[in-house]
Amino acid sequence: MTTYNFCAGPAMLPTAVMQQAQQEFINWQGQGCSVMELSHRSKVFMQLAAQAEQDLRDLLAIPDNYKVLFMHGGGRGQFSAVPLNLLHSGKTAEYIVSGAWSLAAVEEAKKFGAVREHDIRQKTAAQLRSMVASSDWQIHEDAAYVHCCPNETVDGLEFTDLPQTQVPIVADMSSTILSRPIDIARYGVIYAGAQKNIGPSGLTLVIVREDLLPAKDAAIPAILDYRLAAENDSMFNTPPTYAWYLAGLVFKWLKQQGGLAAMAQRNQRKAETLYRYIDESDFYRNDVDPAYRSWMNVPFFLADEQLNDSFVKQAEQQGLLALKGHRMVGGMRASLYNAMPQEGVEALVSFMKDFAKVNG
Ligand code: PMP
């Protein structure tokens, strides 16, 4: 039976990547040992690391005045790292709150400096969950940066329009990076935990404009210091080498798939397939304003919540894994990251139809 894993993260990785990793697990490129047993300072690993960075730069068309950092600590590590690196005394940072993760980010930032919180969550007239358009965010032009989360993994809300501002935009792209092309030059910092669209957990990507690097010898914990990471090619301390290797395989795979324009087409089609069926059905519903529906994370509810457990159990029996919704939202959630093929979404819709027929 083919299984499809709809987990929000750690998430499904491309089968071809997993197979390659399996093949070279014990003996990587004739080295006589696994890639995870190599020194991060060995020539062969440094080559691998540089190649992965180059492939990422190609995929995202990252301009030369941006550093790419391979760090530790996940998305939450960056919730601390961002204010520690960018929020200098006497300055204020703007935090846009559009859901659970951006709320967690502002709570963390408050420990380190002055923040202004903008809760942009709102409901439409039809009581759908929505947000204030970026053109109406009240950003103070003297702010150190404006932090936002373009795709809220838990809530299932995504926005692509950025505000017109000279203030550096810092974006938590943990659950949307590499799902479509973006204009890097519009951002000051982009960060993402790897465990959704990049590779396994343990690795965190940071893309930072050079002029935003902190001052030398700033009082920042060394492993969160962007300047130290940049000056040491992300090898100030031992990086998560195996995750870096796997991310490199994923970047190659993305290039083979036609890059991010091709991924965007596929991701849009997958999301449309699922939302269309949900909207047509009386048995299921999604409560997000269509203008902000996420391509990556689709929360939905059954008309009868008492059927939730049997839905999840029967889906698992059909090889459709990890559909239980986040505890804060309830219901179901299907995460459709890059590695999820269209067939996985079709299989889910087909199961949902059968389940509705029997239980509706
Ligand atoms: N930001 C977003 C948007 C996320 O989805 C997550 C994790 N699901 C995090 C931050 C936290 O990431 P981590 O668990 O890697 O700290």
Account of the protein in words:
This protein is of the alpha/beta class and 360 residues long. It folds into two domains: 15-256, Aspartate Aminotransferase, domain 2 (3-Layer(aba) Sandwich), CATH 3.40.640; 258-359, Aspartate Aminotransferase, domain 1, CATH 3.90.1150. The chain is built from nine helices and 16 strands. It has helices at 15-23, 43-60, 74-86, 100-109, 226-231, 241-256, 259-280, 308-317, 342-359, and strands at 4-5, 66-71, 92-97, 114-119, 121-123, 129-131, 146-148, 151-152, 157-158, 169-172, 189-193, 204-209, 284-285, 297-302, 320-321, 332-335. The strands form five sheets. The protein has a seven-stranded mixed sheet. Strand 5 and strand 6 (129-131) form a beta hairpin. The longest helix is centred in the last third of the chain and has 22 residues, at 259-280. The two termini are 27 Å apart. Bound molecules: 4'-deoxy-4'-aminopyridoxal-5'-phosphate (PMP). Residues 9, 74-76, 101, 149, 153, 172, 174-175, 193 line the site of 4'-deoxy-4'-aminopyridoxal-5'-phosphate.
Low-confidence stretches: none
CATH topology assignment of the largest domain:
Aspartate Aminotransferase, domain 2
Q: Looking at this structure, what is the CATH superfamily of the largest domain?
A: Type I PLP-dependent aspartate aminotransferase-like (Major domain)
Instruction: Quickly give the structural class.
Output: alpha/beta
Which second-level CATH architecture of the largest domain applies? 3-Layer(aba) Sandwich
**What is the terminal-to-terminal distance?**
27 Å
Strand content: 15-25%
What average pLDDT do the residues reach?
Answer: 97
Question: What is the number of E strands?
Answer: 16
Which compounds are bound in this model? 4'-deoxy-4'-aminopyridoxal-5'-phosphate
Helical fraction equals 25-40%
Q: Radius of gyration in whole Å, from Cα? A: 21 Å
CATH class of the largest domain: Alpha Beta
Principal-axis shape equals globular
Question: What's the arrangement of strands in the largest beta sheet?
Answer: 2-12-11-10-7-3-4
Number of alpha- plus pi-helical segments: 9
The biggest beta sheet, please?
7 strands, mixed
Number of domains: 2
What order do the SSEs take from the amino end to the carboxyl end, as H and E? EHHEHEHEEEEEEEEEHHHEEHEEH
